[in-house]
Known about the structure:
Elements: H1 6-14, H2 17-24, H3 31-42, E1 44-45, E2 60-62, E3 65-67, E4 71-73, H4 79-82, H5 86-96, E5 100-103, H6 111-115, E6 120-125, H7 131-144, E7 149-152, H8 162-167, H9 200-208, E8 213-218, H10 221-229, E9 234-237, H11 251-262, E10 268-271, H12 277-285, E11 290-293, H13 295-327, E12 340-341
Parallel strand pairs: 4-11, 5-6, 6-7, 7-8, 8-9, 9-10, 10-11
Antiparallel strand pairs: 1-12, 2-3
Helix pairs in contact: 1-13, 5-13, 10-11, 12-13
The chain binds flavin mononucleotide and benzoyl-formic acid.
Amino acid sequence: MTPSREPERRARDVLDPVHFDALAGGAGSERTLTGNEDAFVRRRLRPRVLRGPGTPDLSTHLPGARLAAPVVVAPTAFHRLAHRAGEVATGEGVAAAHGLLTVSMMATTAVEDIAETGAALWFQLYVQPDRAFTADVVARAEAAGCRAIVLTVDSPVRGRHVRDERHRFTDLPAGLVCENMRGRDGRLRDLVVDPDLGWDAVAWLRGTTSLPVLVKGVLHPADARLAVEHGVDGVVVSNHGGRQLDGALATLDALPAVVDAVAGRVPVLLDGGVRSGVDALVALALGADAVMVGRPVLWGLALSGADGVRAVLDDLADALAHAMALAGAHRPADLTPDLVVVP
Ligand SMILES: Cc1cc2nc3c(=O)[nH]c(=O)nc-3n(C[C@H](O)[C@H](O)[C@H](O)COP(=O)(O)O)c2cc1C
Ligand SMILES: O=C(O)C(=O)c1ccccc1
């Protein structure tokens, strides 16, 4: 049983092959990319029975957001490579699903224009060596109504995306730019991934904004502990969808130790390889408070724009509720690690 490759295959049929690979690909041998999905496939459920009446209630509280289901759209760059309407269509789909969209700093649409869709938003940030510019970007996100900053911490250098190297894909097509990289002067900045970044960047960010701050890209429990000690409001267990350190362990395999280290002090989210309601259930049972989904949303966007995004999110929430009912769980809190086994 492998996850359905159908949405990805259909997206491949409609997208320019170079752009498809820019979205689908991972770093190096792509063993971490595939490993994320494989980790879910290895798990089996041990459901409870005769747990009484009641349809599942999936409502979940996260920093700045009350959600009907514990599913968040992960920050992904370049939505206009997937669909001409780009992040505006994504926002419309997320709004229709009453979901939560994490806007990428490398979005091909300005955060202000995405906010117009009415979708609940978080904003993903790469702290730049130019701290004044970084503070301006954060202020823009805050003014646009974003409810939290998601600080990506797994990218001291860029991952080596082999498919992009093969295609010599280095620049966005003419007409597409990263609109959130404009400074006050209107000039576009190049992204700098900063190998000098340390935990003081979290303290700096907390001094710059009153918004909640989550760190995204934690795999080691010692880093999870440090994150909580530095006052973050949430931790996202992520290996960047296998696009940074090739060979990094699957996020699902990293999750339990991080959950132990955080010990309930802040919410823990997980992304990477979540493709079904059952996958979401497994992550919640192993201690995640919510999951993030990246590529499936891009495939929905590529195939049907806003309607496709809405369908991906609605189907995932419905499938999670259905799987919970079959497993004898009424609320996410009923999902405990004993429900999951590796046979
Ligand atoms: C095309 C693409 C672009 C991405 N861009 C970003 C980004 O700008 N910032 C970031 O923090 N993560 C980025 N990510 C990583 C995602 O946030 C997320 O960690 C990953 O996609 C989750 O795995 P999944 O695609 O298997 O669901 C990107 C991922 C993809 C596939
Ligand atoms: O491709 C990515 O995963 C990503 O995070 C990114 C980083 C810089 C520019 C574009 C995308």
